[in-house]
Amino acid sequence: MEKAQQKLEIIVPSSLTIETDDQKVKTLKIGNIARTASIFRADQITIYRDNQYDESSLIKKILDYAETPPYLKKPLFGISEELRYVGVIPPLQIPSHNLEKEVKVGEYREGFVEEVEEEKVGSDYCARVNIGLDEKALLVNGNVNEAERITVRTISSESPIEVEKVSKEVVPYYWGYETKIVNSLDKHLEELKQGDWKIIATSIEGDRVSAKEEYLDKKTAILFGSPKRGVYAYIDNQRIIDKVLNTIPNQGTKTVRTEEAIHATLSILNIERS
Q: What is 96-170's CATH number?
């Protein structure tokens, strides 16, 4: 489960749930995207607003919930009607979802800051942090706030357990994806191009994918349409796309759902990803 050297972003519409009114089915669809993104080590899932049908907030919330370690779900999300059916989401089982009750020095964990007052944690520490153990860990560095999620590395495995705050970038394993919502797809694609990202769109009208070609760059974003409309319906400047691929040639169904297209596309491109 090593971290990939090539950055990968998935770009999906806020209307990917348009096919159903059933909240449980919506949750499962979004959960399957979370699972697929994790299997293929996606770094980012970006949701662009479809003005005809916008469930971006629901999609982001369920994706974030799925990516959160089990022991942090309740303190970070509490109880919500939008999360009523999260039990149908397949567990991601990524390295950050560590459920072991024993910890080793140098181990990375996700944590939830519970207390920061000096009279509660002592003058030698910054905060008390829930990292999924029976005992709360003590944070030795960093300016943090209560109820904040942070990444830590263990520096002492004996009681009291001590941890230091670190950036996710230093973790040598795949550590989950981040999510965000963008109002303008065109603007987001322009920003990606300015950051030297390669942009691939998926479409039934695209070039048939070939095992003889290499499609990924150091930073690649893959754009998907909705169940009702293809990617061209959402882009004003189509020249910003570097490549349009048909990753499901000779499909046997009239349409391909967004979550199906994501899985098919990433399965193929993962072969060349390092």
A: 2.40.50.140
